C-alpha cells in the first residue's frame, strides 16, 4: 500500500524522465488525478485491481478513449517508477501493465485545410504593420514547414542555414528528442525575413512579443501566443475549429496531393513511424483503381 509521499516521490521520478515540457504537463495532470482518486478511495494495495477500478471511474466520467488510455499510460509509468525505487514489487508493476485500455471505436483524424482556405489564412494578417509581419511568418512556418508549436517558438536565427543551395531549418530538436532538418520554401523564408527586418532581430529566438503599438519586446513567445495567432486569423478567414496542429496536418496532405513521397513527408514532419504520417494524411486503402491495378507487367488481354 503506497502512501502519499511514496506516490509524490514516484511522480517526481516520472516527470524528471520526460524531456518535453508538454509531456511533463500532461503526465503531471494525469498522475495528480489518479493520486486524488486513489487517496479518496478505500485503501487497497496499488495493483491491477485498483487500476481497473480507476479505469471504470474514467469511463463513468464519459471521457474519450484516447484520454482514458493516456491517463492509464501515466499510471503505468508511475507504477514502474515506484517499482524501480523499491516502493512496489515488480510483480505488481507487471500486473498493472496488463490492464487493457479503452477500446477506440474510430480514429480521430483532425482537420485539414484546402488550398483556398490555406491562402485565405495566409492573407489574413495585415503585413503593413509589425505584428502582422510576425503573425504572417508564424502561419507560413506552420503551413509551409509543418512545425509543431514547441518547435516554432524554439527557433533561433542559427537554425536558418543553407544546405545544397536551399534554405532549411537545421538541427531542429523535436518530439521525443528526435533531431531533423526541415527544408524551408523560399516564400516561407521571405515572410521570416520581412519579420526579422521589421523587428530588427539579429540573434537569439526568431519570434518575440509585439505590443498593440507595434513595439517588439521580450526574448521569446509562448505556445499560447501561437495558439491565439492561429485562432484569431482562422476567425478572420472564416475557418472554424482550427488548431496549430491542423496546419501541420494540412502541410502533410498538401505535400502528398502534389506528388510528395511518403518517405520524404515522414522526414519533413519528423515521424519515427510511417504509420503516424499516414494518419496525418488521412490515408485509406483504395480498392477501386488500386495502386497495383496497372503495374506494367500485365499480360495482353486476349493473348493466347
Provide an overview of this structure:
It is a single chain. With 304 residues, the chain is mainly α. The protein has 2 domains: 4-97, Orthogonal Bundle (DNA polymerase, domain 1); 115-281, Intergrase catalytic core (hpI Integrase, Chain A, Orthogonal Bundle). The chain contains 13 helices and 5 strands. The strands form 2 sheets. The protein has a 3-stranded antiparallel sheet. Strands 4-5 form a two-stranded antiparallel ribbon. The chain is globular and about 65 Å long.
How would you summarize the topology of this molecule?
Elements: H1 4-16, H2 21-40, H3 48-60, H4 65-84, H5 90-97, H6 115-123, H7 130-145, H8 149-153, E1 160-163, E2 166-173, E3 179-183, H9 186-199, E4 209-210, E5 216-217, H10 223-236, H11 244-257, H12 262-269, H13 274-281
Antiparallel strand pairs: 1-2, 2-3, 4-5
Tally the helices: 13
- The CATH topology label of the largest domain is hpI Integrase, Chain A
Alpha carbon gyration radius: 24 Å
Strands across the major sheet, in which order? 1-2-3
Distance between the termini: 78 Å
Mean pLDDT rating = 86
What proportion of the residues is helical, as a percent range?
40-55%
**Number of domains in the coordinates?**
2
Write the CATH architecture name of the largest domain: Orthogonal Bundle
For this structure, what is the CATH class of the largest domain?
Mainly Alpha
- Which range does the strand content fall in? 5-15%
Amino acid at each position: 500500500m503506497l502512501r502519499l509521499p511514496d506516490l509524490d516521490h514516484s511522480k517526481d521520478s516520472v516527470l524528471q524522465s520526460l524531456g518535453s515540457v508538454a509531456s511533463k504537463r500532461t503526465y503531471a495532470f494525469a498522475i495528480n488525478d489518479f493520486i486524488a482518486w486513489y487517496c479518496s478511495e478505500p485503501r487497497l494495495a496499488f495493483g491491477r485491481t485498483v487500476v481497473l477500478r480507476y479505469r471504470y471511474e474514467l469511463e463513468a466520467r464519459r471521457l474519450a478513449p484516447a484520454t482514458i488510455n493516456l491517463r492509464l499510460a501515466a499510471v503505468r509509468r508511475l507504477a514502474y517508477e515506484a517499482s524501480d525505487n523499491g516502493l512496489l514489487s515488480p510483480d505488481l508493476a507487471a500486473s498493472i501493465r496488463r490492464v487493457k485500455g479503452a477500446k477506440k471505436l474510430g480514429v480521430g483524424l483532425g482537420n485539414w485545410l484546402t488550398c483556398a482556405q490555406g491562402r485565405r489564412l495566409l492573407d489574413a494578417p495585415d503585413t503593413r504593420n509589425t505584428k502582422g509581419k510576425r503573425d504572417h511568418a508564424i502561419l507560413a512556418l506552420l503551413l509551409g514547414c509543418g512545425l509543431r508549436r514547441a518547435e516554432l517558438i524554439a527557433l533561433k536565427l542559427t537554425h536558418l542555414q543553407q544546405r545544397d543551395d536551399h534554405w532549411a531549418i537545421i538541427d531542429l530538436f523535436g518530439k521525443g528528442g528526435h533531431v531533423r532538418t526541415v527544408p524551408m520554401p523560399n516564400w516561407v523564408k521571405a515572410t521570416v525575413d520581412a519579420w526579422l527586418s521589421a523587428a530588427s532581430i539579429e540573434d537569439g529566438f526568431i519570434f518575440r512579443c509585439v505590443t498593440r503599438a507595434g513595439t517588439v519586446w521580450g526574448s521569446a513567445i509562448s505556445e499560447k501566443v501561437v495558439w491565439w495567432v492561429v485562432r484569431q486569423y482562422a476567425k478572420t478567414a472564416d475557418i472554424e475549429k482550427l488548431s496549430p496542429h491542423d496546419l501541420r496536418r494540412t502541410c502533410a496532405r498538401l505535400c502528398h496531393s502534389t506528388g510528395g513521397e511518403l518517405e520524404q513527408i515522414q522526414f519533413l514532419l519528423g515521424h519515427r513511424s510511417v504509420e503516424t504520417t499516414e494518419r496525418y494524411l488521412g490515408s485509406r486503402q483504395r480498392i477501386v483503381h488500386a495502386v497495383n491495378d496497372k503495374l506494367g507487367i500485365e499480360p495482353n488481354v486476349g493473348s493466347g
